[in-house]
Amino acid sequence: MRIAYANVSYKENDSRGKKSHIRQFVDNTIAIGHELWFWSGDAYQGVHKMPASRIERLRTLRQMDVIYIRVEGHPPGVCRYGLTPYKQLLGSPMVVWEFNTVPEFHRVMGSSEKYIQQAVQNFKRYSHGCDMAVCVSQSISDYVQSKLGIKRVLTVPNGSDPDLFRPDVSPVRRLARQSMQLNVVWIGSAELSWHNFDLMSDAARLIWERGEGSRIAFHIIGQQFGHMREMPPNVHYYGADNYGAIPHWLSPMDVGLCLYKPGPADYNSPLKLYDYMASGLAVVATKQPQIYKIFGQLGQTDLIVPPDDPGMLADVLLLLEADRERTRNLGKAGRQLVIDHYNWRRAVKDIFDEIEALREERLQTY
Question: Quick check: pTM over 0.85?
Fold first, then answer.
């Protein structure tokens, strides 16, 4: 099939998880054998670029089988391609929206309620032209069906690349790590208020105050941390790095943290979770719906901690430090689950299997 990835601009060496998701979608779509077209951005091997001329672009779009649109907090303008007269002008391609979050996400970015409600209304207006919604979590699927009125919905959780994220990749040299300690990592950006950074920092402080600081070291990789001087000596901060370097940060770690505040984060599919698992790390997390389901599959729901109990987080980490064999076995089981199911190859295949089914249904109808 020919797919126009309508609103994506690819940039090399971007540190955000969003761009890693896009790159994996692109790589695996091409690997399956589909033809992919970008609007703009850096050149990417195997991807075609839309012509700059409006007439030539229209001619190219009329050759597409699918208009694939990545949507987040607000519908991009290209969503109109699913409505009359645009869709007929383009030859009635299938229009697929990929939901990675919901409009309410913008609360964590400081947007007003008026902005959020306007986004919801715009989604409803454009939703009549959406043939199928791909959602990264069941929570988003339920939202899209009940609130936006999109009937055909496919839930496809995110994943990782177990060939890229492996326990045996070389560690970064500047890592402040001691092999006798339990090394705990947290990846993320402090400007996103759904991250429960206070839970981690309070737990680290409790461990230090109990005199257990030599047993556990915390390693933070991310940006926008303005108060690191207040952290105890067992917390190390390295700043942000590009996504391609993250496997080298994770391979020498023992435990990864996925800590969120209740609310908008309940809708997401945390990329860090799958990258931790692919790297062979045990994971400790707050009770986020998708995480809780996966922890149930792994038999480790005892590693779920309340969002407001740093004492419990500290206790769980100290138990993992005391039982290194269990910690290693948890990491091995998590990696195997990524290899077996939660990987990008599976995710993209599931998406295109459903798009192929939709196309067959349309051909039979016509």
Answer: yes
